[in-house]
Model the fold of this input.
Amino acid sequence: MTDLHHCLELLSPAKTAAIGMAAVNHGADAIYIGGPSFGARHNASNPVADIERLARHAHRYHSRVFVTLNTILRDDELEPTRRLAFELYDAGVDALILQDMGLTMLDLPPIQLHASTQCDIRTPEKARFLQDVGFSQIVLARELDLDQIRAIADSLDRAVVEFFIHGALCVAYSGQCFISHAHTGRSANRGDCSQACRLPYEVVDSDGRIVAHQKHVLSVKDNDQSANLKRLVEAGVRSFKIEGRYKDLAYVKNITSHYRSLLDQILEESPRLQKASSGTTRFFFTPEPQRSFNRGSTDYFAHGRQEDIGAFDTPQPAGLPLGWVEKIRADSFDVILNEGTSALNNGDTLTYYDLQKTLKGFRVNIAESLGESRWRAFPNEPMTGFKDLRQGVELSRSRDMAFERLMDSDRTAERRIGLDMTLNETTDGITLKLMDEEGHQVSIVHRHERQPARDLARAESALREALGKLGNTLFEARTITLNPLETNRLGFWPPSLLNEIRRQGIAALESLRDEAFPRLPRAAPIEPPARYPGDSLSYLANVYNHEAQRFYLKHGVAVVEAAYESHEALGEVSLMITKHCVRYSLSLCPKQTKGVTGVQGTIRAEPLELINGKEKLTLVFDCKPCEMHVMGKIKRHVVKEMRAEPMTFYRSKPPGGAH
Done:
C-alpha cells in the first residue's frame, strides 16, 4: 500500500458532483463535497446518488472522495447521521470529515475519519490527541506559521497533516465564531453562517472617538500559499486543500489546475515524494488564479504576523486592473485598456471605486472596439446612476466572459494514465500485454492465423497506429513494443482484430485497477484511551450532544460545558476568537505606537467597539498569545425563538467513573 506520508495530495472542493468530476479531470488527487445534510456549508448539499457517481469517476484515477459531516449535532440528529455514514460508505466514499466527537462513539462503518478544521487544531497536543482517538487526517488551523505546522507534523506518527492553501479565509479560528448565532440564530457550527465578518463597521474607542469609519475591519483577504508550497512540504504538510464548496466550475478548474502545476514541479524535483493518484494532466489554457474570485491575496500567518492582510475597503472582488475612463457619454463611456490587457467583452463585469472608496460594479451589455486599445462600453444601467464615474477613473474587471466561456468548455484539460503496451507474436496468434504506470498488468491472448507482412515498415506503422488508439480511454501509450515471431519479420494482423484485443485489454486493465484500489483503512484508537490535553471544556468546545460529552469524559475531561447553541452562556462572552488584530491592522497596537502621539492624543491600549447599525461588539485584546476576542451577548429573540438542545451535563465526572 502507498505510504501516505510520502504522497502529496491536492484536495479540491466540489459544490456539485459535476464540479467534482471536473476537478478530478484537472488533476485533483481528492475531492471534498457536502452530503445531503450535516455539512458545514448549508447550501452545498448533494444527494448520495450524485456522490456515488463522483466516487466512481474519481476512483478510475485512484483519486479519493471525502464527504463533510462537520456540523455539531443535536442528540436527535446522531442516528440520522450514523445511517447517512453507512449510505456514504456503500456509495464508495473514502473518508468522512467530522467536527462532532459524538459521532466517534457510534457504530460507524469502517470508513476513515478526518478531523475538520472546525476542530480548531492549533497545537501538537490537540493534533496528537485526535490522531490517537482514530483520526487519520488532521486539518490544521489556517492561522499557523511554518514552524507551528512543523511542530504539529513532527508530533504525529500516523495521521496526515492537511492545510488550506487557497481561497476565502474565515477570520476566526474555525469553530470559534458564534456571532452569527448570537445575532441571527444561524449557527456557523451548524453550517449556516451569516458572515458578520464581511459587514462594514464603525470602530470607536472608549471615549466615543471614531477610529475607522465604515470599514470591513473583520474582513480579510483571500488565502494564497502558491509561494510557500515547498516550505509547507518541508514542514510536513501532505494534503493541500483548496477552499471553495460554494465556488463555481470556472474557479475550481482554474485553481485546481494552478496548484496541480505547482505540485507537479515539486514532485519532479523530489524523487522521495509521489503523487497521491494516477495520471498526468495537461491543460489547454494557462491557469491564472487572479482571474478567479479573490479579495486580494495574502499568505496570512505563514511567515508570522503581517500588516496587510485585511480587505477593509470591500469584501467583494475588485478584479484585475483593466484600464481607465477616457470619456463619458450619455449612454456609454470610452475606455483605454492597459497594455497587454485582453479585449473587452459583452457581459464583462467592471468595477471602480467612488470618491468615498466604495467599490461599485456593473455589467457591460455591449462592448465595441474603437481600434487599438480603445473600447466603447454600454452598461446594463443608465449612466446617470454611476456615481463618480468620470474621466480618468481607473477600472478593473472582476468577471471576464471570454475566460469564463473558455472554462465552460469541455476542452480545458485532459488527464491520462501512462500505459506500456507490448505485442508478442506467437505461433498460433498474438498476445497483448498492458501495464499501467503503477504496475498493474493484464495480458490478452488471441488465436489467429499469422500472415507474413509484405511491407515491414507499413506493417509496423499499422500495428502502432491500431494499438495507440486510446483517445476515449483513461490511458495514453508511453511505449509500444512489437516482438515479431521471427527477427525483423512482422506478421500482418487485421485492424479489426487489433482493435478488439486493444478494447479487451483496456477493459481488463480498468477492471484490475478497480479491484486493486484499496479502501482507506480506519485507524483504531489507542488503548488505554488517550487523555485529552485539558481538564475542563467551556462552550468553546462545541459539545452539543450527550455522546460528545461522553467522549470527553471517557478521555479524562472532568468538566464539560454545553455548546453556545445550547443557550447556557447568555451573558457577554467571546463571540469570536481570532489571530487577526484590528488594532494592529490599524497601526494602533501599543507595541507599534509606543510614544507616538496622534491627532487625538496619545494612543492608549484600551478596548475598541465595533458598531453596525444597532449591533455593537467589543474588541478585547489578549496580547500574550496575540489574539483578539470579539465580545457580545446573544439576542433575546434568538434565545426565545431558536430551539436549543436541553443539556444536563456533568459539571464533574460522576461517581465511580460512570460515563
The radius of gyration is 29 Å.
